[in-house]
Design brief:
mainly alpha, two-stranded parallel ribbon, 4 strands, 22 helices
Protein backbone atom coordinates (compact mmCIF):
# COMPACT_ATOMS: atom_id res chain seq x y z
CA UNK A 1 0.00 0.00 0.00
CA UNK A 2 1.23 3.50 -0.84
CA UNK A 3 1.57 5.56 2.38
CA UNK A 4 2.77 9.17 2.31
CA UNK A 5 2.91 12.20 4.60
CA UNK A 6 0.14 14.72 4.07
CA UNK A 7 1.99 17.98 3.23
CA UNK A 8 -0.74 20.12 4.83
CA UNK A 9 0.13 21.52 8.26
CA UNK A 10 3.43 19.67 8.40
CA UNK A 11 5.84 21.09 11.01
CA UNK A 12 8.87 22.89 9.61
CA UNK A 13 11.24 20.08 10.54
CA UNK A 14 9.37 17.61 8.28
CA UNK A 15 8.91 19.71 5.16
CA UNK A 16 12.13 18.56 3.48
CA UNK A 17 12.10 15.18 1.72
CA UNK A 18 15.33 14.14 3.44
CA UNK A 19 13.84 14.94 6.87
CA UNK A 20 10.73 12.87 6.09
CA UNK A 21 12.88 9.92 5.06
CA UNK A 22 14.98 10.20 8.22
CA UNK A 23 11.81 10.37 10.34
CA UNK A 24 10.19 7.25 8.84
CA UNK A 25 13.52 5.40 8.99
CA UNK A 26 13.82 6.20 12.70
CA UNK A 27 10.28 4.98 13.36
CA UNK A 28 11.03 1.80 11.41
CA UNK A 29 14.16 1.23 13.53
CA UNK A 30 12.28 1.80 16.79
CA UNK A 31 9.55 -0.63 15.76
CA UNK A 32 12.15 -3.23 14.80
CA UNK A 33 13.84 -2.79 18.19
CA UNK A 34 10.47 -3.38 19.81
CA UNK A 35 10.39 -6.79 18.05
CA UNK A 36 7.25 -5.96 16.11
CA UNK A 37 6.86 -7.87 12.88
CA UNK A 38 5.91 -5.08 10.51
CA UNK A 39 7.23 -3.27 7.44
CA UNK A 40 6.96 0.22 6.01
CA UNK A 41 4.14 -1.01 3.76
CA UNK A 42 2.12 -2.26 6.72
CA UNK A 43 -0.86 -0.29 8.07
CA UNK A 44 0.42 -0.66 11.66
CA UNK A 45 3.64 1.14 10.75
CA UNK A 46 1.69 3.84 8.90
CA UNK A 47 -0.67 4.37 11.85
CA UNK A 48 2.26 4.80 14.27
CA UNK A 49 3.92 7.33 11.96
CA UNK A 50 0.65 9.22 11.58
CA UNK A 51 -0.05 9.34 15.31
CA UNK A 52 3.46 10.61 16.04
CA UNK A 53 2.98 13.44 13.56
CA UNK A 54 -0.49 14.31 14.86
CA UNK A 55 0.75 14.29 18.46
CA UNK A 56 3.69 16.58 17.64
CA UNK A 57 6.53 14.09 18.22
CA UNK A 58 8.42 14.83 15.00
CA UNK A 59 11.88 15.86 16.22
CA UNK A 60 13.88 12.62 16.23
CA UNK A 61 16.78 14.40 17.97
CA UNK A 62 14.63 15.47 20.91
CA UNK A 63 14.50 13.55 24.17
CA UNK A 64 10.69 13.72 23.98
CA UNK A 65 10.62 11.58 20.82
CA UNK A 66 11.28 8.30 22.65
CA UNK A 67 8.51 8.97 25.15
CA UNK A 68 6.16 9.87 22.33
CA UNK A 69 7.04 6.72 20.39
CA UNK A 70 6.37 4.38 23.29
CA UNK A 71 3.10 6.12 24.11
CA UNK A 72 1.94 5.72 20.50
CA UNK A 73 3.33 2.17 20.29
CA UNK A 74 1.31 1.26 23.37
CA UNK A 75 -1.81 2.75 21.82
CA UNK A 76 -1.24 0.79 18.60
CA UNK A 77 -0.78 -2.47 20.52
CA UNK A 78 -4.07 -2.04 22.34
CA UNK A 79 -7.53 -3.37 21.60
CA UNK A 80 -11.15 -2.31 22.06
CA UNK A 81 -14.08 -4.28 23.41
CA UNK A 82 -17.31 -4.42 21.43
CA UNK A 83 -20.74 -3.80 22.90
CA UNK A 84 -21.17 -7.46 23.94
CA UNK A 85 -18.49 -6.87 26.57
CA UNK A 86 -16.37 -9.87 25.57
CA UNK A 87 -15.26 -9.54 21.93
CA UNK A 88 -11.93 -7.74 21.70
CA UNK A 89 -10.81 -6.14 18.45
CA UNK A 90 -7.05 -5.39 18.16
CA UNK A 91 -6.38 -1.83 17.03
CA UNK A 92 -4.13 -3.10 14.24
CA UNK A 93 -7.15 -4.81 12.62
CA UNK A 94 -8.95 -1.48 12.51
CA UNK A 95 -5.86 0.20 11.01
CA UNK A 96 -5.84 -2.43 8.26
CA UNK A 97 -9.57 -2.05 7.51
CA UNK A 98 -9.38 1.75 7.48
CA UNK A 99 -6.30 1.80 5.22
CA UNK A 100 -7.93 -0.55 2.73
CA UNK A 101 -11.15 1.47 2.69
CA UNK A 102 -9.36 4.78 2.14
CA UNK A 103 -7.18 3.31 -0.63
CA UNK A 104 -10.32 2.19 -2.48
CA UNK A 105 -11.71 5.73 -2.35
CA UNK A 106 -8.84 7.13 -4.46
CA UNK A 107 -7.70 6.24 -7.98
CA UNK A 108 -4.06 6.63 -6.91
CA UNK A 109 -4.46 4.45 -3.85
CA UNK A 110 -2.41 6.91 -1.76
CA UNK A 111 -3.18 6.93 1.98
CA UNK A 112 -1.71 9.67 4.14
CA UNK A 113 -0.10 8.64 7.43
CA UNK A 114 -1.95 11.35 9.34
CA UNK A 115 -5.20 10.48 7.58
CA UNK A 116 -5.01 6.82 8.60
CA UNK A 117 -4.19 7.74 12.20
CA UNK A 118 -6.95 10.37 12.47
CA UNK A 119 -9.72 8.24 10.96
CA UNK A 120 -8.62 5.11 12.86
CA UNK A 121 -8.69 6.91 16.19
CA UNK A 122 -12.24 8.06 15.52
CA UNK A 123 -13.31 4.57 14.45
CA UNK A 124 -11.74 3.04 17.58
CA UNK A 125 -13.54 5.56 19.78
CA UNK A 126 -16.79 4.65 17.99
CA UNK A 127 -16.31 0.86 17.88
CA UNK A 128 -18.90 0.15 20.59
CA UNK A 129 -21.66 1.71 18.48
CA UNK A 130 -20.32 0.51 15.13
CA UNK A 131 -18.09 -2.60 15.41
CA UNK A 132 -16.09 -3.83 12.38
CA UNK A 133 -18.71 -6.44 11.47
CA UNK A 134 -21.46 -3.81 11.29
CA UNK A 135 -22.58 -2.97 7.73
CA UNK A 136 -22.26 0.73 8.57
CA UNK A 137 -18.56 0.38 9.46
CA UNK A 138 -17.28 1.20 5.97
CA UNK A 139 -19.70 4.08 5.48
CA UNK A 140 -18.56 5.55 8.82
CA UNK A 141 -14.97 5.45 7.57
CA UNK A 142 -16.09 7.48 4.55
CA UNK A 143 -17.73 10.10 6.80
CA UNK A 144 -14.65 10.51 9.00
CA UNK A 145 -12.35 10.55 5.97
CA UNK A 146 -14.43 13.28 4.30
CA UNK A 147 -14.02 15.37 7.45
CA UNK A 148 -10.27 14.80 7.36
CA UNK A 149 -9.92 15.67 3.67
CA UNK A 150 -11.91 18.86 4.18
CA UNK A 151 -10.24 20.03 7.38
CA UNK A 152 -6.76 18.61 6.94
CA UNK A 153 -4.60 17.13 9.69
CA UNK A 154 -5.29 18.93 12.96
CA UNK A 155 -2.44 17.59 15.06
CA UNK A 156 -0.78 19.02 18.13
CA UNK A 157 2.25 20.93 16.87
CA UNK A 158 4.23 24.03 17.75
CA UNK A 159 3.76 25.52 14.27
CA UNK A 160 1.32 28.26 13.28
CA UNK A 161 -0.24 29.16 9.92
CA UNK A 162 1.83 31.40 7.66
CA UNK A 163 1.08 34.90 9.02
CA UNK A 164 2.75 36.70 6.10
CA UNK A 165 2.40 34.18 3.73
CA UNK A 166 18.02 19.47 13.14
CA UNK A 167 19.11 20.53 16.49
CA UNK A 168 20.40 18.80 19.59
CA UNK A 169 18.15 18.10 22.56
CA UNK A 170 20.56 19.78 24.96
CA UNK A 171 23.67 21.90 25.02
CA UNK A 172 26.39 22.48 27.62
CA UNK A 173 24.09 25.17 29.08
CA UNK A 174 21.17 22.72 28.90
CA UNK A 175 19.24 24.95 26.51
CA UNK A 176 16.15 23.09 25.38
CA UNK A 177 14.96 23.76 21.81
CA UNK A 178 11.47 22.39 22.53
CA UNK A 179 11.11 24.82 25.44
CA UNK A 180 12.22 27.77 23.30
CA UNK A 181 9.82 26.81 20.52
CA UNK A 182 6.99 26.59 23.05
CA UNK A 183 7.80 30.11 24.21
CA UNK A 184 7.87 31.24 20.56
CA UNK A 185 4.28 30.02 20.15
CA UNK A 186 3.17 31.85 23.30
CA UNK A 187 4.91 35.01 22.06
CA UNK A 188 3.07 34.76 18.73
CA UNK A 189 -0.20 33.92 20.49
CA UNK A 190 0.10 37.03 22.67
CA UNK A 191 0.53 39.30 19.65
CA UNK A 192 -2.39 37.60 17.93
CA UNK A 193 -4.34 38.30 21.12
CA UNK A 194 -3.52 41.99 20.65
CA UNK A 195 -4.61 41.64 17.03
CA UNK A 196 -8.03 40.48 18.41
CA UNK A 197 -7.86 37.15 16.57
CA UNK A 198 -9.57 35.12 19.29
CA UNK A 199 -12.16 37.78 20.09
CA UNK A 200 -13.02 38.17 16.41
CA UNK A 201 -13.52 34.44 15.86
CA UNK A 202 -15.58 34.15 19.06
CA UNK A 203 -17.78 36.99 17.80
CA UNK A 204 -18.20 35.29 14.41
CA UNK A 205 -19.22 32.04 16.14
CA UNK A 206 -21.68 33.95 18.34
CA UNK A 207 -23.21 35.69 15.31
CA UNK A 208 -23.48 32.36 13.48
CA UNK A 209 -25.06 30.61 16.47
CA UNK A 210 -27.65 33.41 16.70
CA UNK A 211 -28.60 32.75 13.07
CA UNK A 212 -27.39 36.18 11.97
CA UNK A 213 -24.53 35.08 9.70
CA UNK A 214 -25.53 34.47 6.06
CA UNK A 215 -23.89 31.06 5.61
CA UNK A 216 -25.68 27.82 4.92
CA UNK A 217 -24.83 24.18 5.53
CA UNK A 218 -21.40 24.48 3.95
CA UNK A 219 -17.73 24.46 4.87
CA UNK A 220 -18.10 27.72 6.76
CA UNK A 221 -20.84 26.40 9.01
CA UNK A 222 -18.99 23.11 9.51
CA UNK A 223 -15.84 24.96 10.67
CA UNK A 224 -17.89 27.16 13.01
CA UNK A 225 -19.77 24.16 14.41
CA UNK A 226 -16.52 22.27 15.10
CA UNK A 227 -15.03 25.34 16.76
CA UNK A 228 -18.10 25.92 18.95
CA UNK A 229 -18.30 22.37 20.28
CA UNK A 230 -14.56 22.05 20.95
CA UNK A 231 -14.40 25.08 23.25
CA UNK A 232 -13.70 22.96 26.35
CA UNK A 233 -10.35 21.91 24.84
CA UNK A 234 -9.09 25.49 24.39
CA UNK A 235 -7.51 27.80 26.93
CA UNK A 236 -9.91 30.39 28.32
CA UNK A 237 -8.99 34.09 28.08
CA UNK A 238 -7.86 34.12 31.73
CA UNK A 239 -5.74 30.98 31.20
CA UNK A 240 -4.14 32.54 28.11
CA UNK A 241 -3.30 35.75 29.95
CA UNK A 242 -1.83 33.75 32.82
CA UNK A 243 0.59 32.15 30.32
CA UNK A 244 1.46 35.53 28.81
CA UNK A 245 2.25 36.96 32.26
CA UNK A 246 4.21 33.96 33.51
CA UNK A 247 6.20 33.23 30.33
CA UNK A 248 6.56 36.71 28.80
CA UNK A 249 6.21 38.98 31.82
CA UNK A 250 3.11 40.69 30.40
CA UNK A 251 1.08 42.47 33.06
CA UNK A 252 -2.56 41.66 33.68
CA UNK A 253 -2.58 37.88 34.09
CA UNK A 254 -3.15 36.10 37.40
CA UNK A 255 0.02 34.13 38.11
CA UNK A 256 0.49 31.67 40.96
CA UNK A 257 2.30 33.11 43.96
CA UNK A 258 4.67 30.13 43.75
CA UNK A 259 6.38 31.39 40.58
CA UNK A 260 8.10 34.55 39.41
CA UNK A 261 6.74 36.13 36.19
CA UNK A 262 9.36 36.37 33.46
CA UNK A 263 9.96 40.12 33.79
CA UNK A 264 13.32 39.76 32.02
CA UNK A 265 11.94 38.54 28.72
CA UNK A 266 11.19 41.82 26.96
CA UNK A 267 14.60 43.33 27.76
CA UNK A 268 16.41 40.20 26.51
CA UNK A 269 14.20 40.12 23.41
CA UNK A 270 14.95 43.74 22.51
CA UNK A 271 18.67 43.13 23.03
CA UNK A 272 18.55 40.38 20.41
CA UNK A 273 16.69 42.64 17.98
CA UNK A 274 19.09 45.54 18.64
CA UNK A 275 22.25 43.46 18.25
CA UNK A 276 20.98 41.92 15.01
CA UNK A 277 20.17 45.38 13.65
CA UNK A 278 23.58 46.71 14.67
CA UNK A 279 25.35 43.83 12.94
CA UNK A 280 23.32 44.51 9.81
CA UNK A 281 24.21 48.20 10.00
CA UNK A 282 27.90 47.35 10.20
CA UNK A 283 27.59 45.61 6.84
CA UNK A 284 26.28 48.65 4.98
CA UNK A 285 28.17 50.10 2.05
CA UNK A 286 28.89 53.39 3.81
CA UNK A 287 30.85 51.71 6.59
CA UNK A 288 32.96 49.77 4.10
CA UNK A 289 33.60 52.64 1.69
CA UNK A 290 34.62 55.05 4.49
CA UNK A 291 36.88 52.44 6.07
CA UNK A 292 35.17 52.43 9.45
CA UNK A 293 34.79 48.69 9.75
CA UNK A 294 38.04 47.37 11.28
CA UNK A 295 36.97 44.42 13.43
CA UNK A 296 33.47 45.76 14.12
CA UNK A 297 31.69 42.85 12.47
CA UNK A 298 33.49 40.31 14.58
CA UNK A 299 32.63 42.21 17.73
CA UNK A 300 28.96 42.78 16.86
CA UNK A 301 28.61 39.15 15.75
CA UNK A 302 29.70 37.98 19.19
CA UNK A 303 27.32 40.48 20.78
CA UNK A 304 24.52 38.81 18.83
CA UNK A 305 25.73 35.44 20.09
CA UNK A 306 25.70 36.61 23.70
CA UNK A 307 22.27 38.25 23.50
CA UNK A 308 20.80 35.18 21.77
CA UNK A 309 22.33 32.91 24.40
CA UNK A 310 20.79 34.97 27.22
CA UNK A 311 17.35 34.91 25.58
CA UNK A 312 17.66 31.18 24.82
CA UNK A 313 18.50 30.44 28.47
CA UNK A 314 15.57 32.54 29.65
CA UNK A 315 13.06 30.96 27.26
CA UNK A 316 14.40 27.49 28.01
CA UNK A 317 13.86 28.05 31.74
CA UNK A 318 10.27 29.25 31.31
CA UNK A 319 9.37 26.59 28.73
CA UNK A 320 9.27 23.61 31.08
CA UNK A 321 6.28 21.56 32.21
CA UNK A 322 2.81 22.74 31.31
CA UNK A 323 4.20 25.44 29.02
CA UNK A 324 4.70 22.79 26.34
CA UNK A 325 1.06 21.73 26.40
CA UNK A 326 -0.29 25.26 26.78
CA UNK A 327 1.71 26.16 23.65
CA UNK A 328 0.30 23.18 21.74
CA UNK A 329 -3.25 24.13 22.70
CA UNK A 330 -2.62 27.74 21.70
CA UNK A 331 -1.15 26.63 18.37
CA UNK A 332 -4.20 24.45 17.72
CA UNK A 333 -6.47 27.37 18.70
CA UNK A 334 -4.70 29.60 16.15
CA UNK A 335 -4.94 26.90 13.49
CA UNK A 336 -8.68 26.49 14.10
CA UNK A 337 -9.22 30.26 14.09
CA UNK A 338 -7.47 30.70 10.76
CA UNK A 339 -9.34 27.69 9.33
CA UNK A 340 -12.50 29.74 9.93
CA UNK A 341 -11.12 33.06 8.71
CA UNK A 342 -9.71 31.46 5.54
CA UNK A 343 -13.01 29.81 4.61
CA UNK A 344 -14.36 31.47 1.42
CA UNK A 345 -17.94 31.27 2.70
CA UNK A 346 -17.05 33.24 5.86
CA UNK A 347 -15.10 35.83 3.88
CA UNK A 348 -17.99 36.18 1.43
CA UNK A 349 -20.44 36.67 4.30
CA UNK A 350 -18.40 39.68 5.43
CA UNK A 351 -17.72 40.92 1.90
CA UNK A 352 -13.91 40.60 2.09
CA UNK A 353 -11.23 38.43 0.54
CA UNK A 354 -8.70 37.73 3.30
CA UNK A 355 -8.52 36.48 6.90
CA UNK A 356 -7.17 39.72 8.37
CA UNK A 357 -9.83 41.70 6.53
CA UNK A 358 -12.45 39.59 8.31
CA UNK A 359 -10.89 40.60 11.65
CA UNK A 360 -10.91 44.23 10.54
CA UNK A 361 -14.60 43.95 9.62
CA UNK A 362 -15.55 42.31 12.93
CA UNK A 363 -13.30 44.46 15.15
CA UNK A 364 -15.72 47.43 15.59
CA UNK A 365 -18.17 45.02 17.27
CA UNK A 366 -15.60 43.94 19.87
CA UNK A 367 -14.00 47.19 20.96
CA UNK A 368 -12.21 48.74 18.00
CA UNK A 369 -9.85 47.96 15.14
CA UNK A 370 -6.31 46.96 16.25
CA UNK A 371 -3.06 47.75 14.45
CA UNK A 372 -3.22 44.63 12.32
CA UNK A 373 0.03 45.18 10.44
CA UNK A 374 1.98 45.74 13.66
CA UNK A 375 0.76 42.72 15.61
CA UNK A 376 0.68 40.43 12.60
CA UNK A 377 4.34 41.28 11.93
CA UNK A 378 5.36 40.88 15.58
CA UNK A 379 3.64 37.49 15.78
CA UNK A 380 5.19 36.22 12.55
CA UNK A 381 8.69 37.71 12.89
CA UNK A 382 8.91 37.00 16.62
CA UNK A 383 8.13 33.33 16.17
CA UNK A 384 10.56 33.03 13.26
CA UNK A 385 13.43 34.58 15.25
CA UNK A 386 12.77 32.48 18.37
CA UNK A 387 12.49 29.33 16.26
CA UNK A 388 15.86 30.13 14.69
CA UNK A 389 17.34 30.62 18.15
CA UNK A 390 15.94 27.19 19.07
CA UNK A 391 17.41 25.71 15.89
CA UNK A 392 20.92 26.88 16.77
CA UNK A 393 20.96 26.22 20.54
CA UNK A 394 24.25 24.32 20.24
CA UNK A 395 26.25 27.36 19.07
CA UNK A 396 25.12 30.22 21.32
CA UNK A 397 27.65 29.46 24.04
CA UNK A 398 30.53 29.58 21.57
CA UNK A 399 33.34 27.09 21.52
CA UNK A 400 33.00 26.20 17.85
CA UNK A 401 35.95 28.33 16.75
CA UNK A 402 33.87 29.83 13.92
CA UNK A 403 32.37 33.30 13.59
CA UNK A 404 28.64 33.46 14.22
CA UNK A 405 27.80 35.01 10.84
CA UNK A 406 29.59 34.98 7.51
CA UNK A 407 31.11 38.27 6.36
CA UNK A 408 30.56 38.38 2.64
CA UNK A 409 29.46 42.00 2.58
CA UNK A 410 32.75 43.39 1.31
CA UNK A 411 32.76 41.02 -1.65
CA UNK A 412 29.13 41.84 -2.35
CA UNK A 413 29.80 45.59 -2.21
CA UNK A 414 32.74 45.37 -4.62
CA UNK A 415 30.61 43.32 -7.01
CA UNK A 416 27.75 45.84 -6.70
CA UNK A 417 30.04 48.81 -7.37
CA UNK A 418 31.61 47.04 -10.37
CA UNK A 419 28.19 46.19 -11.74
CA UNK A 420 27.00 49.82 -11.35
CA UNK A 421 30.15 51.12 -13.07
CA UNK A 422 29.73 48.73 -15.98
CA UNK A 423 26.09 49.73 -16.36
CA UNK A 424 27.15 53.36 -16.63
CA UNK A 425 29.95 52.71 -19.14
CA UNK A 426 28.11 50.06 -21.10
CA UNK A 427 31.02 47.67 -20.89
CA UNK A 428 28.84 44.81 -19.74
CA UNK A 429 28.65 42.60 -16.65
CA UNK A 430 31.87 42.00 -14.70
CA UNK A 431 33.60 38.68 -15.16
CA UNK A 432 33.09 35.99 -12.54
CA UNK A 433 36.27 35.67 -10.51
CA UNK A 434 36.94 32.22 -9.09
CA UNK A 435 38.57 31.90 -5.67
CA UNK A 436 42.33 31.64 -5.83
CA UNK A 437 43.85 28.17 -5.25
CA UNK A 438 44.31 27.49 -1.57
CA UNK A 439 42.02 30.34 -0.52
CA UNK A 440 40.28 29.80 2.80
CA UNK A 441 36.47 29.76 2.68
CA UNK A 442 35.00 31.24 5.84
CA UNK A 443 32.69 28.88 7.72
CA UNK A 444 30.12 30.43 10.02
CA UNK A 445 27.95 28.88 12.71
CA UNK A 446 24.74 30.23 11.14
CA UNK A 447 24.03 29.41 7.50
CA UNK A 448 23.84 32.37 5.07
CA UNK A 449 20.15 31.74 4.46
CA UNK A 450 19.29 31.78 8.15
CA UNK A 451 21.57 34.79 8.64
CA UNK A 452 19.52 36.70 6.07
CA UNK A 453 16.33 35.55 7.78
CA UNK A 454 17.58 36.80 11.16
CA UNK A 455 18.38 40.24 9.71
CA UNK A 456 15.19 40.50 7.69
CA UNK A 457 12.87 39.59 10.57
CA UNK A 458 14.71 41.89 13.00
CA UNK A 459 14.28 44.69 10.48
CA UNK A 460 10.54 44.02 10.33
CA UNK A 461 10.29 44.21 14.15
CA UNK A 462 12.19 47.50 14.26
CA UNK A 463 10.04 48.96 11.48
CA UNK A 464 6.64 48.16 13.01
CA UNK A 465 7.74 49.23 16.51
CA UNK A 466 9.22 52.47 15.18
CA UNK A 467 12.51 51.99 17.03
CA UNK A 468 14.96 54.85 16.43
CA UNK A 469 18.66 54.45 15.62
CA UNK A 470 19.76 55.66 19.05
CA UNK A 471 17.48 53.08 20.69
CA UNK A 472 18.91 50.33 18.48
CA UNK A 473 22.40 51.37 19.53
CA UNK A 474 21.38 51.30 23.18
CA UNK A 475 19.78 47.85 22.90
CA UNK A 476 22.86 46.49 21.13
CA UNK A 477 25.30 47.51 23.87
CA UNK A 478 27.04 44.55 25.54
CA UNK A 479 25.67 43.48 28.91
CA UNK A 480 27.02 41.06 31.46
CA UNK A 481 25.60 37.56 31.13
CA UNK A 482 23.18 37.01 34.00
CA UNK A 483 22.80 33.91 36.13
CA UNK A 484 20.04 31.68 34.71
CA UNK A 485 19.22 28.26 36.23
CA UNK A 486 18.58 25.43 33.79
CA UNK A 487 15.54 24.07 35.65
CA UNK A 488 12.77 25.85 37.60
CA UNK A 489 12.79 26.19 41.38
CA UNK A 490 10.70 23.68 43.26
CA UNK A 491 7.27 24.74 44.55
CA UNK A 492 6.85 25.96 48.14
CA UNK A 493 6.60 23.45 50.96
CA UNK A 494 3.04 22.14 51.06
CA UNK A 495 0.80 23.99 53.48
CA UNK A 496 3.31 26.66 54.45
CA UNK A 497 3.22 29.08 51.56
CA UNK A 498 6.97 29.43 52.03
CA UNK A 499 10.01 28.30 50.08
CA UNK A 500 12.20 27.82 53.17
CA UNK A 501 15.84 26.80 53.13
CA UNK A 502 17.97 26.46 50.01
CA UNK A 503 14.94 26.65 47.69
CA UNK A 504 14.14 30.08 49.12
CA UNK A 505 17.72 31.24 48.63
CA UNK A 506 17.63 30.00 45.03
CA UNK A 507 14.41 31.89 44.32
CA UNK A 508 15.82 35.03 45.94
CA UNK A 509 18.95 34.75 43.77
CA UNK A 510 16.75 34.43 40.67
CA UNK A 511 14.74 37.52 41.61
CA UNK A 512 17.88 39.59 42.13
CA UNK A 513 19.42 38.38 38.85
CA UNK A 514 16.28 39.54 37.07
CA UNK A 515 16.51 43.01 38.57
CA UNK A 516 13.59 42.53 40.97
CA UNK A 517 13.70 44.06 44.46
CA UNK A 518 11.95 41.73 46.91
CA UNK A 519 9.61 43.30 49.45
CA UNK A 520 9.96 42.72 53.19
CA UNK A 521 7.09 40.21 53.13
CA UNK A 522 8.69 38.32 50.24
CA UNK A 523 12.04 38.16 52.06
CA UNK A 524 10.33 36.83 55.16
CA UNK A 525 8.44 34.18 53.18
CA UNK A 526 11.54 33.14 51.22
CA UNK A 527 14.15 32.93 53.95
CA UNK A 528 12.59 32.57 57.39
CA UNK A 529 11.32 29.16 58.52
CA UNK A 530 7.60 28.52 58.67
CA UNK A 531 5.88 29.26 61.98
CA UNK A 532 2.80 27.08 61.48
Amino acid sequence: MNFQLDPRNLPDNLKATEAQQAFTDRVDTEIANATSATTKEDSLFAAIVGMLVLDGFTDITSSSFDNGFWAVRGEAAGSVTESDGTTKVPNKHIYKAVAAAIARLRPTGVVFFQELASVSRQMIANVVEIPPDNPAFLSQIRVFDDDYVQGGPQGDTLDLPDLSGSVTSATPDDLRPDNIRAVSVIFAAYNLEQLRLYDAVDRIVETWWNGQLPVGSDRGSKALDDFFWSSEFRLSPSARHMQYSRVLGITGGEVSTEVQPNTQFNDLWMRVIGSLAEFDRQQRIGDIVTGQRTNALTLTGEQVRQSARNLAANASLYGWGGTQFAARRLAKHVQSAFAILNTPEIQQAYGVDGPFKVIERVAPEIGGTPNIVKYRTLADSGKRILDLIAKYVSIWSGGTGNPLFSDNSQTNVIASLASALNNLTGVGPPPVVAPSPGATVQISDVSPGDQDEFMRQAGFVIAVLGIKDDQVEQFSQPAETQYAPSIPNLAPVSGTGSTNGQAGIDQLRQMVSQGQVPTADQLKALVLPSTN
